[in-house]
Every structure is written in C-alpha cells, then in structure tokens.
Amino acid sequence: MAEFFLELFCEEIPARMQARGADDLLRLVSEAIAPLSPTGGRCWYGPRRIAIALDVAASTVASATVERGPRISAPEQALAGFLRKHGAAREALKQEGEFWVLEKSADAQPAEAIISAVLPGLLRRFPWPKSMRWGAGSGFTWVRPLRRILALLDGAVVPFSLAEGEDSGHGLIAGHLTEGHRFHFPGAVAVRGAEHWVTTLLAHRVIADVADRKRIIETGIAELARAEGLTVVSDPGLLDEVAGLVEWPVPLLGRIDDRFMDLPPEVMQVSMRVNQRYFALRDAAGRPAARFAFAANIDARDNGVAIVAGNERVLRARFSDARHFWDLDRRTRLADRVEALKGIVFHAKLGTQYARVRRLESLAGSIAAALGAPVEQAERAAMLAKADLTTGMVGEFPELQGVMGGYYALHDGEAAAVAEAIGQHYQPRGAGDSVPSDPVAICLGLADRIDQLAGFFSAGEKPTGSGDPYALRRAALGVIRLVLDNGLRLDLRAVLAEAAARFDPPADADELLGFVVERLRVQLRADGARHDVLSAILAGGADGDLTRLIARTSAVAAFLASEAGANLLAGYKRAANILRIEDKKDGPHEGRPEVALLTEPAEQALAAALDQAAPALRAALAREDDAAAMSAMAGLRAPLDDFFTSVTVNDPEPKLRRNRLLLLRTVRDSMQIVADFSRIEG
Predict the structure, then answer these.
(1) Among residues 213, 118, 130, which one has the least CA distance to residue 174?
(2) Cis, peptide link before residue 505, omega less than 30° from 0
(3) d(C-alpha 392, C-alpha 492), whole Å
(4) Residue 1 in contact with residue 56, Cβ under 8 Å?
(5) Domain check: are 173 and 268 in the same one?
(6) Which of 144, 225, 419, 421 is most buried by its number of CB atoms within 10 A?
(7) pLDDT digits (tens, 9 = 90+) for 138-187
(8) CB-side exposure of 25: number of CA atoms within 13 Å?
(9) Tally of structural domains, the chain
(10) Are residues 312 and 339 both part of a single domain?
(11) What global pTM score does this model have?
(12) Where among 194, 225, 252 does a domain terminate?
C-alpha cells in the first residue's frame, strides 16, 4: 500500500466549518478513488487548512467483465442508451441467446493517474456550506481563497491542475509545499508525507491536530487560573471554536475592571464569549472573578503583555456597552413593556408576542391550579415572561432572553418566585441544562412549550424527517424533563387539549400527546433504556400522566429482567404465536373457556390462576401499585409453564382444542391489561 496525502491550504476557514470540511474531504476522496481500495483514513483541520491521508493500492487490478444488455428485440433507443452508459461502440456487442452482451476489459491503472483524474472535479464541486469567488479569470469557488494544494503519493507529487477549459482555476497546481505559521514562519516549506507534514508544521509553529490544540488551551488556561485560586467556567462549545481559530495556542489571562463586576454574570460571560471568545472564571466561592482567559495565536516576545493589554482595552469597551444597556433598560418596568409586545410578531400565522403572553397567562394559571402552585404568581410570570424582548440588552445578546427578564423583574420589585420563573422559563435549553424546580417556574416553562407545540401544530408547521425549524422536538423534550425530573402528576392530555383549543383551527390534542410520547420513547432508546417496554404499554393508548407511564415502564422492564419475567414473556409469545396460527385456520377464537371442558390438572390450575390474576392486575393498576401488578402477573409463570409441558393444545377432540385456545387467549388478554407484550423485543 502507498500513502496518499492531500492538504488544501487557504485563507482562514470559519471554525464551525472545519471539522465537517475535513470529514467531507475524506469521505469524498475515499469514494472517488474506491478502485484503489483506500484504508486507514485520517484527517486534520485548522484555521488555514484541511488535510487527509489514506493508504491506497499502487494501482488498480486488471479486469474483464461481461455486461448483459437489452434483448435483441428491444427498441433502438434502449440499445443506444446501453452503449452510451458503457461508452462502447455497437461493433463491440455480441449476441448471446436473446440478449446483446458487451465484453469489457480494463487494464491496471496506476494510482497516480486515477487520483489526478478525479481530484480536480471533486474539488470544484466540494460541498462547503458557503463558498466564495476571488480574483479574476476563474469561476472556481472555495470556502475562502485557496492558496496551495499539496498532493503526495509515497512522497512524490501527484500532478493535477484546477484549470478546466478556459477557466484557469486561479492557476492552482498540486505540489509538495505547505506553509507554517502566518507570523512566526511565513513562506513555503516542502514536505514528504503525512508524518513529515505534522512534524514540519510543529517546527514551524503550527499544531496540526485539533485535539492537541484543545488540550493545550484547556489545560493552559486551567493552570493559569489555578495559580490565582480560580476555576474556568466549562464551555465545550467555546473551546471547540477557539481551537479552530488558532494554530499555535498561547493561553493568557486578562483583568476585568472592578467597575464592571456588578453586571449580571450572564451578561459578562455572554459578552466575552460572543464578542471576544474569552473564557469566564470563577473564584473559590463560585462568584464571577475579575479575570478572563483567552488563547493568543502567537508566542509574543514580551510574554503576551501587549496582547493582554489590548484585549483588556477591547473588553472595557464591550462592557461599557453592556453597562449602557443595563442602566437604560432598568428605567422602564417590565410591566410597562408588555404593551410593546404588540409590535413583535411571534409567527406570521400565530400573531404577536402580546397575543402569546395572554395565552400563556391563562395556560400557566390552569397548570398551576392542577399542580397546586400559586396561580396568581404563575399568571404574573407568564404576562411578563417575554417583556425583555423589548430591551436593549436582549436586542444585543438574544442568548439572554429570559435571564434578563428575571433580573429586571427583581429590580422592579416583583415577587422572587415570579422573577425566578421568568429567568428560568427557557430551561432546560438542552440535554445538559438544569431543570427548574420552583413550582411557578415549572408552570411557566410547561405553558411556554405547550403553547409552542399547540400553535405550530395548528399552523401546520410540524417537524418532518428532514427538519424541525421551530425546535418542536426540543420543546417536547423540555416538557418531558420538566414533568419527570420534578415527578409531576399532571394530565398532559388535558393541558394539551386546553392549549390546542386556543388556536383556529385547534390542534389535535391526541396528535400532540403522541408527539410528546414519541419523543419520550426516542429519548429512552438513546439512553439505552427499554423503549420497547414503553411502546408495549402505550399500545393500549397514550397515557397523559408521564410520571405514571415511566413508573410502569420501569416496573415492567425490571420484571422482564428477572427469571420469572423472562420465562413468562416466553410463555406469552408461545401462546400468542399458537393463537395467531390457529386463528388463521378457523378463528377467531373468542370467548371464555368452559370450565367443564378443563379436563387436565395443568389447564385447571392455569384457569384458576387467571381467575385470580386478571382482577388483581386491574385493581393494582387502578391504585398505581406497579409492584403488586408485577407480583400478580408473576403468579401466571408456573401454571403457564406446566400447561405447555403437560397439555396438548391442538387436541384431536375439536371441543377440547377450542377450549384450550380460549384459555391461551385469556392468558394473552390478561397480560395485555399491563402491556402488549408482543411488542417486546427479543
């Protein structure tokens, strides 16, 4: 095998596009040179380059194949299409029986020839999310101006050009040159292969592997912070982005002026993150520290003194802007801002934010009443929940929606529970986010998401397999976490129906509940839990009480994991299979078995067990005693095992056969009081 190495060197690539670009390059090149059996794919990416390496065969293998074409009687157009597809002349065809055949042979081709042939077209059609043109005389586009192409096969240049017809391709021709750090080592440098490229770049102040850059940034700023008794606020997304901005990361700390330390910590952190890509720090007590961390891209002679000073100066300007918004926004009470929501459209089909908060008021109040939470506070929080959309701070930093409303509500003298609810009503924003636990915050968070679901379903804006532009799946997951993490006993079907009725046309409450429950099932599957058990329980209809639903799912899953449960499930499936087969012959077999026809002790014992189990199951489920329900179901295991061991179901006597099939139907129906066990996997 030979090593093929390709580097595409250009101006700065946006950090968010680098990983996908490198992955796409590896995938597309692997597909394009598939005849060379590529293996061992590796990729690298950074601010100014993406690169891949593959082990490939030195050449393709000579081959001979026979392609069967159209029938002799086929229309001329079919024959012409076949010849065109294979690039063959009619003289190459032979007749075999009723068909034309084409014998094709392919000589072995060197890897260099194949790579040179496919790469120009591949690069011209590379799927960057956004591309640009530059210079003149070429229609070639790239994410940013492409400056060099390095293409090596076992150290030798693979020659190809991006020129196509009259398009010069900016004169780009593959070679053996790359470039080091823009400032420390500008200019071209020759390399011989992937490993030599990595070590050469390192010697020229470029760390090729993004994982290494991330480690240097993360450990470096953590050590600097630790030296001052501080910790770094975890921000994996920011770490990924910064690693895509620097080739030679140099961690540094800067200082924040004390006059800005009374700003809300979220304001400081978002301003630093969004505008400057700085990391926030905390002191030993978890309070915001008057320090910030960042990664420079050069190793300065003064150990970064001038760089730190420049970044401190920029941050002062940013925080001065934030201070302006903070002071200005607090001059107008949130309650006085609600009217301005009439001028903010929520969605063209769903009206304004003002109309929405009026719906939220009513819905949050209903939820509060159902949960025994303070109704007036829930309604007040709902009325003020979106008022911060009119503030300058949220206009500058949309990420602070809700958070700023909470701060402004406290400043206005609103009840602490109301302010907390406003500040937390977007939580959880994602899988790792915390879930509100205060009753008012829970009511507002549920109302916000349920109104969102009902509204967009009413407007026909439902998620599809290819998209979810209004984040309705995330909204459903938020409802699930608010309910389950807080152990709420809430009839979600009733709440969804109430929300749906406020729209014209009203959304289908059952469809909405099904959507939420399906997200629950998907989440269980992603977590490795028994999503099939949930599906089995739901077969009898969606339960609007998610807490009860999950409790029963957990109980059934635990029961099936036991020896008794596993054996009973096997017996159930055997009974269900027999019924399915026999029903096709002369079924359906419906009704209760006749006691007089239960002649065998084993079938008599099974019938007696069923007489006890079915009412016990119904009673246990009615009082939500899942443990008792599982115990009642476990009582069927031994009698059912004995029945299959001792009794012939398909007895020659028709009456006995039918009666025993009715007994198995009773087994199936009794167990399906709990769940449709035919849906259990395995």
Answers:
(1) 118
(2) yes
(3) 37
(4) yes
(5) no
(6) 421
(7) 889 999 999 999 999 999 999 999 999 888 999 999 999 999 999 999 99
(8) 27
(9) 5
(10) no
(11) 0.82
(12) 194
